[in-house]
Amino acid sequence: MQTFRGKSVSKGHKLFQSHHVQEVVEIRDSGGGFIHGKVTPQTRVNNRPYDVKVEVNLDRTVRRTECTCKAGLSVRGCKHVAAVCIFINNECTQSKTDQPQCWNQPRESQVEKYKKGCTIAQMFPGQEHLIDCNATYTFNDVQNVPYCTEGSLFGQYIQSEKDIEPLREIAREEEEKRKEEAYIIMDQIYRLQESRRDYSCYEVLSVDDLKMRLRKYTCPPELQSKYEEKIVADRSECLSISVLSESQSDCFEWFEERAKRVTCSSKAHRIKTRRDAFESLASQFKKNKFDGKMTEAMKYGLETESNARKSFEEQSGLKVTSVGLIINMTQPFMATSPDGIILSESSLLEIKCPLAVRISKS
Known about the structure:
The protein is α+β, with helices and mostly antiparallel strands. It folds into three domains: about 10-90, no CATH class; about 140-195; about 210-360, Alpha-Beta Complex (Lambda Exonuclease, Chain A), CATH 3.90.320.10. Helices cover about 40% and strands about 15% of the residues. The protein has helices at about 10-15, 80-90, 110-115, 120-125, 155-195, 220-230, 235-245, 250-260, 265-275, 280-285, 295-315, 355-360, and strands at about 20-30, 30-40, 50-55, 60-65, 200-205, 210-215, 260-265, 325, 335, 340, 345-350. It has a four-stranded antiparallel beta sheet. It has a three-stranded mixed beta sheet with strand order 7-9-8. Helix 1 (about 10-15) packs across helix 2 and helix 5 crosses helix 7. The protein starts with 7 loop residues before the first helix and ends with a helix. Pfam families: YqaJ. It comes from Eumeta variegata.
């Protein structure tokens, strides 16, 4: 358990006891094994579960962990990883449906008064298990599985897993390299943020011939705690959000973190051009929720964005790094999602793929 950070083990045990761990699968091979599972968020139980991946050695020590939560990028495992590991090591994995049905059962006096023959279970005994559920099977040990041969469906599945594992390893290495590059760039950006000047909003209280009295806008006291909990983020949290939301519209974290902030594309322009009725505009921002439905133009833009980025790199010879949501640390209610960062030129890349171009070509 030394691989886990802080109180992750105790928090993970609470998640396990609360039945937040689900869909856990362990696959063992000659080098150790892989554990995949999902963990329901502790408070926002209706949100998408966190995906947890754990690689273990032959001696069952943890080799590498991965989780889609904010703390999942840490070298030391988060509480969701701990919960999955505790689930695997727990001997009692029965669910409520594995236990005998206990509702609507007759009272003892009724059973004695109206005795019946035998139970349904005695009348129709279940078949014996053909496979020993407590046995350990590996990719290289298919013959140990009773009633299973190399030509069976299970054998074919095991073989396909063996064949595809080298490709998975290459993909994992490429993904880790890409995330590391994005992490380094985002770290530089957030370091620069610490030295930049920020601007604040002021309310005019009174004006006379000699001076103007102003008051700085601040968060209302009744909303301060919620603002600090939901909006404020330190540099490590900002870094995690930026790297995890790199796929932007394909990422749940991108929608979640972006919805509660003022962003360049969806809100900033409307705020800048508005001259009055600001409360009405704020109410619209609060009510407008993305329901997942996309127009044809939006679909076309998403489908062609990666090709446009690749074409730009080939024609310009510049390296473009994809990033996720970038949060203003000193004013965390503001954020932006650039389509790419060109570090060598200290520039941002904004990609536009209008549907009208495709229509005109066709």
